[in-house]
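Write out a record, fold above all:
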Amino acid sequence: MHLPRALAAFNRRVTNPIQRRWAGRIPGHAIIEHTGRRSRRIYRTPVLCVRRPRGFAFVVGYGLESDWVRNLLAADGGTVVHRGRRYRVADVRLVPAPAGRALLPNPLRLILRLAHEGDVLTVTIVD
């Protein structure tokens, strides 16, 4: 069960512009810079993020219809701003729940299991 698309639209217009001010600098959050599939425009989307040994894992809370998910998958990469650093990323993979939850820390795993969420998008940092 993903969060409602109406909430995603609200976040895109209201919450995301506010979160973009700090999401790329604090733990547990990141900004994904991705290119639109048709517009070729660069978008900056704040997301929940977990640092992995060679990359990142992102919670997919609004489902596969999310533009940032579709754009990263189509381009097989983008840029991640995490804790003030920029990383080029590639090798984008969708890991569906419950296997996706296994990639996350226990507290977040529990919250997502209770919310019937758990799809995770993983990326690898490009050297």
